C-alpha cells in the first residue's frame, strides 16, 4: 500500500472456515435454486422470440444478469470476510457488514439476485420468469421487514439503527456511506 492509502477493511483478516464452507453450501442450496433451478424449470433454457419483438430486451437481460452477478459475489465475500458468517439465518454474521456495496444500499445481495432473475426473464423472453422474479422480490421484502431487520436491530443495536438511517433499504445511494 502507498503512504496515505488506508488498508482494505478485509486485509489481514482470515475468516473462519465454517463461514466459508457454510456460505458455499448456502449458495448451492438457496440462491442456486432461486437463480438457476427456478428459471430453468420455467424455461428449460428455451430462447423464445424477444419480448415485443424487440431484440434489445435480450441484450438488456444480459446486461442485468452480468451487472447483478458481481454485486451478489461481493455480498457473499463481505459476509464471509467482513462479517465472519454466512447469509444463512442459521449461521449469521458475527459482525455488522457495512463495507463494499453495503455502503450504497442495505440489501445488495437481494438486489443482485433480482437483477440476475429479471435479466434471465428478459433474455429468455419469459413472462413466467419475470413474474417469478417479481414474486421473489416481494418475498425478499417481506422477509427483510418481518425477520431480517428486527433480528439485526436486536443483534447490533444502535450501530444497525444508525446504519439504517444513513443507507437506504432498496434504492442505492449515489454516494457511498462514509465509514
Q: Can you give a write-up of this model?
A:
It contains 6 helices and no strands. The N terminus is likely disordered. It is mostly helical. 60% of the residues lie in helices and 0% in strands. It is globular and about 50 Å long. Helix 2 packs antiparallel against helix 5.
Number of separate strands: 0
Q: What percentage of amino acids are in beta strands? A: under 5%
* Count of DSSP-assigned helices: 6
Shape: globular
Alpha-carbon distance between the two ends: 19 Å
Supply Rg.
18 Å
What value does the average pLDDT take? Answer: 91
For the biggest sheet, the summary is:
none
Structural class of the helices, strands and pairings?
A: mainly alpha
- What is the N-to-C order of secondary-structure elements (H for helix, E for strand)? HHHHHH
> Number of domains in the coordinates?
1
Q: How much helix is in the residues?
A: 55-70%
Outline of this structure?
The chain has 179 residues and is an all-alpha fold. The chain is built from six helices and no strands. Helix 4 (108-123) packs antiparallel against helix 5 (127-156) and helix 5 (127-156) packs across helix 6 (158-166).
Keywords:
179 residues; 60% helix; globular; mainly alpha; single chain
Helices and strands, with pairings:
Blueprint: H1 17-29, H2 31-43, H3 56-82, H4 108-123, H5 127-156, H6 158-166
Amino acid at each position: 500500500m502507498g503512504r496515505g492509502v488506508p488498508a482494505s477493511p478485509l486485509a489481514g483478516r482470515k475468516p473462519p472456515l465454517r463461514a466459508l464452507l457454510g456460505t458455499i453450501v448456502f449458495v448451492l442450496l438457496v440462491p442456486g435454486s432461486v437463480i438457476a433451478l427456478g428459471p430453468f424449470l420455467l424455461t428449460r433454457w428455451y430462447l423464445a422470440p424477444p419480448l415485443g419483438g424487440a431484440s434489445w430486451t435480450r441484450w438488456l437481460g444480459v446486461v442485468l444478469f452480468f451487472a447483478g452477478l458481481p454485486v451478489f459475489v461481493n455480498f457473499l465475500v463481505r459476509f464471509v470476510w467482513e462479517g465472519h458468517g454466512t447469509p444463512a439465518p442459521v449461521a449469521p454474521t458475527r459482525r455488522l457488514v457495512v463495507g463494499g456495496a453495503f455502503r450504497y444500499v442495505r440489501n445488495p445481495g437481494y438486489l443482485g439476485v433480482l437483477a440476475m432473475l429479471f435479466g434471465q426473464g428478459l433474455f429468455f423472453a419469459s413472462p413466467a420468469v419475470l413474474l417469478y422474479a417479481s414474486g421473489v422480490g416481494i418475498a425478499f421484502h417481506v422477509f427483510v421487514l418481518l425477520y431480517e431487520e428486527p433480528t439485526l436491530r436486536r443483534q447490533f443495536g444502535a450501530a444497525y439503527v444508525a446504519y439504517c438511517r444513513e443507507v437506504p433499504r432498496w434504492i442505492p445511494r449515489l454516494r457511498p456511506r462514509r465509514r
